[in-house]
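Sample entry (228 residues):
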Amino acid sequence: MNPLEQIRTIPLFEGLERDQLRNVADIVQQRTYRRGEVIFLEGDEGNGFYIVNTGQVKIYKISVEGKEQILHLFGPGESFGEVAVFTGHDFPANAKANANTTCMFIPRDGFIDIIRRDPALALNMLAVMSIRLRKFTGLIEDLSLKEVPGRLSAYLLFLSDKSPEAEDLDLEVSKGQLAALLGTIPETLSRILNRMARLGLLKTEGARVRILNKSALQKIADGETKMS
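Predicted structure, serialized as tokens:
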């Protein structure tokens, strides 16, 4: 698929005319990363943003104690690093390929020139970033206010909403990484998954999860039901 056809499938650029899409496609750079390869580090110059074609990208921070906190996981069609476009500041977190990954890189200088000629692009980006801010606010709420079963339930329901027709859910990450995403440890996560399976809420098989009682998970996510 050529860059123009790739750009057309990206939510960030929905509703744009073909000429607008072509302007963006003209400055796209294709980049490939091996699993575990760093894309950028916190503090690196924010010289552009990325869109995932294939694979998965992990955005994370490292605490002073060396603990990793996953902030976002981005898959095909999703963009990251856009803050650099508007602020010109350094990247505020780390990005690493969580699998063998291909990305489109859009350099800041070239994209700013396009935006100056066509402000509709900036409006699209602001809308997408606003949605992401709401999701990030929800993540902070989950990590600070909900207990781990509630965080896990909310995450599983989120995956279910992303693939409503799929009977089985792909956890997208290892259980160790999922534990980091949810602000817990792998042992606690495994214990809760096993407990949910015994209660008939879900069934697990490796990295696959089948939700058996969505309404019960929703009550746990909402805090209406506590897991004893």
